[in-house]
């Protein structure tokens, strides 16, 4: 009897595992190369989870094999629980390390237990990256997964946290904008003790190491370049993000985030720009 009852159970478990595997493709090694301590796992829903591990010897990261030119990039992240002061966790796009590089950043600056984690959003255009908008998160980013999204098209760059837009960085024809250099996608976890938390006053407490950040549900709906002067290869239905700009309600959430959670705005930092604010600060 016992054996006969067991068989359907085994079949049911096998089918459930198959269904889970089919619902979520593995993505880490298919799409990225890795650096440092990276662990791969599957969560209870069958999704592949990539965890970055930071200890005293090394940080960690993953870097897309493909370069992209415009797209919508999204990932779910569960940040470091407890005292994460001094750590920096990121999800970003970058054209490389050269002096005239472009970059679009979402970086999370850790904090002491109970103190708010800061989300730093930034845009680098042709090597100039003094364009930060920083927010205190309105939830505990370590308690659960949240979705972080970057939309990059030729009109604007939009940053989204779960379903809420927190920033749009517009293109002006006469001002630098990341619009000519393909970028790859990166995620990193590193020791930013010298600047991350309260301007570097709170360094990493290594007695809490190793620090672990988990990523899952990565998607890139994006165009890829075919070489200088040739048209991009784009997936079907590109307009859903290629033409994306914020409507009034979505601009409302940007204002909401600005009013209630903004921690730093480069356009208000007169000390940093004694010769006057960057031109885009007085547009819109
Ligand atoms: C850390 O917490 C302090 C105190 O609440 C806060 O002022 C600061 O903005 C937080 N974040 C960082 C990255 O320093």
Automatic annotation (TrEMBL):
Main location: secreted
Signal peptide start and end residues: 1-24
Enzyme Commission no: 2.4.1.207
Superkingdom assignment: Eukaryota
Residues forming the catalytic site: 103, 107
Localization in the cell: Secreted, Cell wall; Secreted, Extracellular space, Apoplast
Name this polypeptide is given: Xyloglucan endotransglucosylase/hydrolase
Organism for this UniProt entry: Eragrostis curvula (weeping love grass)
Lineage, top ranks: Eukaryota, Viridiplantae, Streptophyta, Embryophyta, Tracheophyta
